[in-house]
Amino acid sequence: MFRPNEASVRGLGTSLSLGVFSGSILSNDTLIGAERLVSPMDSPPGTTPAPEAAPPPSLMAPATALDRCATGIEGLDNLTGGGIPRGNMVLVAGSVGTGKTTLCLEFLVRGAERGERSLFISVTESASKLIQNLSTFEFFRTELVEQGSLVFVDLPVVYDRLGLGHEELTPEEIDIVLRTIRDLVRSLGIRRLVLDSLTSVCYRIRRDEQIRDFMLRLGQELNAAGCTSLLVSEIGPTPGRYSLHGVEEAIVDGVILLWNTRRMGDILRVLQIVKMRGTAHSRAQYVMELTPIGILMAPHLKGGRETGGT
Known about the structure:
With 310 residues, this protein is α/β, with parallel strands linked by helices.
């Protein structure tokens, strides 16, 4: 089985050579912003093979609840006492237009600015479109992608290259997807990860027991790597539901709920932390505003005429 190594950094828009990830092939259609990945080659005759490189510091030990991952979104960090416990897997649940993807992208950008390599695995939108949308925010710098601090992967392209064309994934195919994500995190030294969306992945798994197993194993791998993750859950406006199957919220370490509400003719985005293992947190509702400089939050005041979520 081939193991990927890192080589020279490739800039945004430059071609990336093929790399092998435990049977998966990743190219420039799949990876944007990653350092070039190559397969190990046999040493020339008469030479001594170079010793294997030590794993990145982030892989030396599992995360502990005392180590926090500051999201970089001031209001959100205040609600969690300084950040999400390092290694937690958090569900970001909300209906359309509630700011799920924007919150997750800012979480990755702020991490990349701190020197934490960040990975966005996209299922529904192409990486190029996500980067184009990001460019409208003042806090985003394209150098983060060019330098390999912020990496984008198009999961549908990975599916295609792995031959995973079935509408429902088999247990063996689910295992391949898990190993591919694991190898990306390990080889690139990823400290922050976003999967957008978990709902789309689970749609191809379908069975509750397999979804439970997938998420348990994914959470274990990410925690062992000290990687803090946000998983996007697409839900309708029905109260009391945080995921498509109802299994996901029981497995994750935290749930951040987003919804839209109307007040005096305006539509407001509202955020609330439903649960967060490993730390005390506020359960108050906060209005979330998407601005060019990033997400701003303020207490959700109850005054005024208000109607249900949308």
